[in-house]
TrEMBL record:
Keywords: Hydrolase. GO terms for molecular function: asparaginase activity. Its EC number is 3.5.1.1. PROSITE patterns: ASN_GLN_ASE_3. Pfam families: Asparaginase_C. It comes from Staphylococcus aureus. This is L-asparaginase. SUPFAM superfamilies: Glutaminase/Asparaginase. SMART domains: Asparaginase.
Length: 130
């Protein structure tokens, strides 16, 4: 019998869900800024298979401490995210910290999906399965 997912009907456009594009040498300042802004979640267009530059880690740690959903997508056209690399900022390390890996969606689509999930009070575990 096919699995039918419950319809998510609510959309709260006032939720603060920024979309950030990563780049090599990126400082952590943008993440530090957002950690003080009371955001509800974040989508990051990461490098390659879902990696972040080590230079951004200090700010990323501030976001992680808020325990909000952080979704990773690849900046690469038709790219996938995978917890492959274990260096500081690598996808493996980010997965261990609770980042949600989203394949098949670009940044704007992942942001919309996260916004709808949060509008319907889904927690991080539920978001990870939709």
């Amino acid at each position: 019998m096919p699995y039918r997912q419950q319809a998510l009907e609510n959309v709260n456009e006032k939720l603060n869900v920024p979309l950030v594009k990563a780049y090599m040498g990126m400082p952590g300042d943008i993440f530090s800024f957002y950690s003080r802004e009371g955001i509800d979640g974040m989508v990051i267009e990461a490098l390659g298979q879902g990696n972040m530059p080590p230079s951004a880690l200090e700010g990323i740690q501030q976001l992680v401490s808020l325990n909000i959903p952080i979704v990773l997508v690849s900046r690469s056209f038709n790219g996938i995210v995978s917890p492959t690399y274990a260096y500081d900022g690598g996808g493996y390390q980010l997965a261990q910290q609770g980042f949600i890996f989203s394949n098949g969606l670009n940044g704007p689509k992942a942001r919309l999906k996260l916004l709808v999930a949060l509008s319907n009070n889904l927690d991080k575990a539920e978001i990870n399965h939709i």
